[in-house]
Every structure is written in structure tokens, then in C-alpha cells.
Write a structure and sequence with these properties.
It is a single chain. 49% of the residues lie in helices and 10% in strands. It is mainly α. A three-stranded antiparallel beta sheet has the order 1-2-3, covered by helices on one side. It is elongated, with a radius of gyration of 20 Å. It binds flavin-adenine dinucleotide. The site of flavin-adenine dinucleotide has 11 residues, from helix 4 and helix 5. Residues 88-135 form the FAD-binding domain. It comes from Paraburkholderia silvatlantica.
């Protein structure tokens, strides 16, 4: 993981030896929409140019990438997002609490939500509204805890104090 304000290169190795790399850039949607992967080498050179002066081994992760690049804009709901009960309907996972991936908890929360919803339905057989109310009563305080953590990490990774703020985070935990 190599980061500085507004940009970073993050990579991890899979069990089969392949390396998956993520490039993070704080850019406008217009800039992102203009990336043209129909000319893949040119697009990779354009992205690597954002890391001028960085270690060649890190830029290689971009320039010699042999997978199809995928652009993923990062969206997040407000940390304390909740909604009024709607009879017969509820939300799980990202639909309920979309957050940036910098705590690595979105999929964990989605699976936990599903398990909790299933449990609430089993414990309130024949009373769907009671089950959904019970599920949401626990969901609303649970999600902001992680959403706040990931929002904090987002600033640590790409804010003005990066990379020192990331080093401090790992030194504490
Ligand atoms: C770069 C990145 C890294 C991440 N890293 C981690 C991590 O390390 N750990 C972690 O726990 N989480 C991580 N996450 C977050 C995690 O991927 C999500 O929180 C999780 O996938 C949410 O699951 P979900 O089922 O709620 O939504 P999704 O996974 O988005 O599933 C929703 C599904 O619904 C489908 N769909 C949408 N609209 C329709 C429609 N109209 N009809 C039918 N189907 C539809 C979509 O195609 C999709 O398959 C990361 C996310 C990103 C972007």
C-alpha cells in the first residue's frame, strides 16, 4: 500500500501468486468518464502519469497490468443514514448503508444483515412488521459505527496527512 494526499496504489497477492492492484485517485467524474480503455495502453500511461516520480516498481503495477482495467467510482451514503419504516419492505447490505471500502467491512456487514434479518423473521413468525422493526432497530445503530470508521480511514489514506496518518493507524492497532 503506497498513498499520498489524493492518490494511492494498493496491491495484494492471491494464493495462486497473481497480484491484484488498485489505483486510487481523487478526481472529478468528468475526468473519470473521459478515460478511454478502448486504447488500453494509452489509458494506462495516462493513469501512470498521475504517479510521476513514484518508484518504478509501483508504476509497473499500472503500466504492465495484464487484466482488463475496471473503473469504480466510490460512493457513500451519509454516515447516519436511516429511513422511516415502510410496511413490508426493508434493506440489507450496500442498499442500506453504502460506504467507501476503506474499513473492508461492506461485505461482512451485508452478510451479517442477511443473517440478522433471517433471525428476526424466524423469531417473529406470522408478524412481518415486528420482524422488520426488530431488524431495523439493530441495523440503524450498527451501520454508522462502521461507516464512521471507513470515513475516517478514507481521510487517513488520502487526506493531507497521508501517508503518516496511515502509518500512525497501523502503529496504534
Ligand atoms: C474496491 C472495493 C473494495 C472492497 N473491499 C471490501 C473488503 O475488503 N471487505 C468487505 O467486507 N467489503 C469490501 N467492499 C464492499 C463490498 O464489495 C460491498 O459492501 C458488498 O459487495 C455489498 O454487498 P451487497 O450484496 O449489498 O451489494 P452488491 O454486492 O452490490 O450486490 C448487489 C447485486 O444486485 C445486482 N442488481 C442491481 N440492480 C439490480 C436489478 N435491478 N435487478 C437485479 N439485480 C440487480 C447487482 O448486479 C449486484 O450483483 C469493497 C468494495 C469496493 C468497491
Amino acid at each position: 500500500m503506497a498513498v499520498e494526499p489524493g492518490r494511492g496504489i494498493l496491491a495484494h497477492q492471491h494464493a495462486n501468486g497473481t497480484v491484484r492492484s488498485y489505483v486510487a485517485l481523487q478526481k472529478s467524474e468528468t475526468w473519470i468518464d473521459a478515460l478511454d480503455f478502448s486504447n488500453r495502453p494509452a489509458a494506462l500511461v495516462q493513469i501512470a502519469a498521475e504517479f510521476e516520480g513514484w518508484a518504478p516498481s509501483l508504476r509497473t503495477l499500472i503500466l504492465e497490468c495484464d487484466a482488463e482495467p475496471t473503473v469504480r467510482s466510490i460512493y457513500a451514503l451519509p454516515v447516519d443514514h436511516k429511513w422511516q419504516r415502510v410496511p413490508g419492505v426493508t434493506l440489507v447490505g450496500d442498499a442500506a448503508h453504502l460506504m467507501s471500502p476503506f474499513a473492508g467491512e461492506g461485505a461482512n456487514l451485508a452478510m451479517y444483515d442477511g443473517a440478522e434479518l433471517g433471525k428476526a423473521l424466524c423469531e417473529n413468525r406470522g408478524d412481518l412488521e415486528a420482524a422488520l422493526e426488530k431488524y431495523e432497530d439493530a441495523l440503524f445503530p450498527r451501520s454508522p459505527f462502521v461507516a464512521r470508521q471507513t470515513a475516517r480511514n478514507h481521510v487517513r489514506f488520502f487526506g493531507e496527512h497521508a501517508p503518516c496518518s496511515v502509518v500512525e493507524m497501523f502503529a496504534v492497532h
